[in-house]
Each structure stands twice: as structure tokens, then as C-alpha cells.
Amino acid sequence: xxxxxxxxxVNNDLNGGLTNMGRGVLNAWVFNILPETETCEGxxxxxxxxxxxxxxxxxxxxxxxxxxxxxxxAERHDRIYSKFIKKASDVGWxxxxxxxxxx
Length: 103
Description:
Layout: H1 20-30, H2 45-60, H3 71-90, H4 96-100
């Protein structure tokens, strides 16, 4: 039987955590789906997929736009993402792939 692949966790992910899965974890923190101490390290990809569905449901309430978040969530988003953008920048991430739409 083949061992299930598991997620490395947002703190160990590529690009300082700013991958699709990593952003899913960060967004789960923003929306209080998960506590900020939960990095999802060791979670199966199936479990991460379910988390991403929950996150997508929350984003849909705000038209998928940060600018539509209420002040408390917008502040939390800014605080969480600022930390991870700095971390990602420190390891060479620039966001260029994301802005070209090639991720």
C-alpha cells in the first residue's frame, strides 16, 4: 500500500509559505477556520482540499476581494500576509509568477 502524501506545513512550504496550499492555510487563519498555531504540517492533501473548500466559501461572502472584508478581517489579513510576504521575500520570492498568472 502506498503511503499518502502529506503537506509540509505553511512554515516549511516553498516561497516562504506563499504557495496555493500555503495561502489556503493563511486564509483559514484570516477567517478563524483554524488557529494561527495550526500550520497543517502532516495533513493529507485530501484534508487540505477540504480546508480550501471552507476557505473558498468564506471568500465568496466577500466577493473574493480583500477590499470587501470587514475591518477586523482586513486587519488580520494584512497582519498575517505582511509577515509571510516578508518571509517569502527574504527567500527570493517576488510574486512575479502570480502576477503573470502562471502559478
